[in-house]
Amino acid sequence: MRILESGYTIRSARAEQLTLLSQVEQLANRLFLDTPYSFLVNAEPLPLDLIRERFQAGQVWVAIDNQDAVVGFAITREVDDTLYLQEIDVNPAHGRKGIGSALVNTVCSWAKLQDYRAVALSTFRHIPWNAPFYSKLGFRISDESELTIGLQQIRLQEREAGLPISDRVIMQLEL
């Protein structure tokens, strides 16, 4: 558990909180409204079965406020011996308070303890709270030739889901 100066706490999720994550995800998706990716505003949230699976693996973290409300979360999974940050969202009403950075740092600390060599993620290249944000945390954009088979599969799945692959990048942080 990690308590931030702003009064938020980052910790492993509890089972009863899993159904709340879709609300946070949908609120965070609204940030895309005034971008070229406004279609994401109405995107389906992660399936609850997937969230429960990741929870059982100990790979769901939440950010909670001082009233124990979930205001952010991160979900990971393993991809080719790398910890992949599958989803991270913060309720925009609680944004710009270090919650996203704290969630990423928590994931990276956990990954080190589990002996992962790196943390990877896929994100939009030019959206400020995407690649530029992760760059500030030490992530670097991976060249296509560096991508493992699993990360290449993620790119393919994103293309099949209708995401503009030319605007997406895989980023990694070596641990």
Q: Characteristics of this structure?
A:
single chain, 175 residues, 5 helices
Count helical runs. 5
What fraction of residues sit in β-strands?
A: 25-35%
Shape: globular
In N-to-C order, the SSE pattern is EEHHEEEHEHEHE
Largest sheet: 8 strands, mixed
- Give average pLDDT, whole number: 96
Which range best describes the helical content: under 10%, 10-25%, 25-40%, 40-55%, 55-70% or over 70%? 25-40%
How many β-strand runs? 8
Query: Whole-number radius of gyration?
Result: 15 Å
Q: Could you list the spans in which at least 5 consecutive residues all have pLDDT below 50?
A: none
**From the helix content, strand content and strand pairing, which structural class follows?**
alpha+beta
* Strand order within the widest beta sheet: 1-2-3-4-5-6-8-7
Q: Between the first and last Cα atoms, what is the distance in angstroms? A: 21 Å
Provide a descriptive summary of the structure in words:
By secondary structure, the chain is of the alpha+beta class. Helices cover 29% and strands 26% of the residues. It has an eight-stranded mixed β-sheet. Strand 1 (2-3) and strand 2 (9-12) form a beta hairpin. The chain is globular. The two termini are 21 Å apart. 31% of the residues are buried. The mean pLDDT is 96.
Q: Layout of SSEs?
A:
Elements lengths: L1 E2 L5 E4 L8 H9 L18 H9 L3 E5 L5 E10 L2 E9 L8 H15 L4 E7 L6 H6 L3 E2 L7 H12 L7 E7 L1
Parallel strand pairs: 5-6
Antiparallel strand pairs: 1-2, 2-3, 3-4, 4-5, 6-8, 7-8
